[in-house]
Write a structure and sequence with these properties.
With 175 residues, the protein is mostly beta strands. Helix content is 7%, strand content 41%. Strands 5, 6, 7, 8 and 9 form a 5-stranded antiparallel sheet that branches.
């Protein structure tokens, strides 16, 4: 569940979630970048957590070091909410982030394991996971418009709908 994007200076950006504690799904959103030519990965950048865990991080890059990241954040009662964070200095030593909730309504319900399609057990777990687990990434994506504003699309399995949000305030990732 990793996202990838290239910024205006040809830096490659990779987004992912990583468990805070081995063996559980309490995850934080991380980014790695590599300079043009992909000679080596830079140290990970962590997006500050505001809730329990995070899954399905996606990244969209603008100008050099300017990125927007979206993910699902775990709230109470195994409910998940889409979030957005924007940094205009993600290549810096201590990047600054502007975060916002994209919806006050939960979009999914489930344990982090189930949300990650780890629903199978036993010797046929791989087959079970491919056939009976939810496909929570369907229609989940992020892009940046010409003005440098993030645009996020996400499905809501609880509302049986797909939503789109376009950033209207806060820092943009161009200029």
């Amino acid at each position: 569940y990793a996202g990838i994007s290239v910024d205006g200076a040809s830096n490659v950006w990779l987004s992912y979630t990583e468990s805070v504690h081995p063996g559980d799904y309490t995850s934080e959103v991380r980014l790695r970048s590599a300079p043009a030519g992909g000679t080596a990965w830079r140290r990970p950048v962590v997006v500050p957590r505001t809730q329990g865990g995070s899954l399905f991080a996606l990244v969209a890059a603008g100008d050099a070091g300017k990125v927007a990241v979206s993910w699902l954040a775990l709230g109470a009662d195994s409910l998940w909410y889409p979030r957005l964070a924007v940094s205009t200095d993600a290549l810096g030593r201590t990047p600054h982030w502007t975060q916002t909730a994209l919806s006050q309504e939960p979009t999914h319900r489930g344990s982090p394991a189930a949300m990650s399609a780890a629903c199978g057990t036993g010797p046929t777990s791989g087959l079970q996971q491919g056939l009976v687990c939810g496909r929570f990434l369907d229609n989940f994506g992020i892009a940046v418009d010409r003005a440098g504003r993030a645009m996020v699309v996400w499905p809501s399995h609880l509302q049986n709908a797909t939503f789109v949000a376009t950033q209207t305030a806060g820092p943009d990732v161009r200029r």
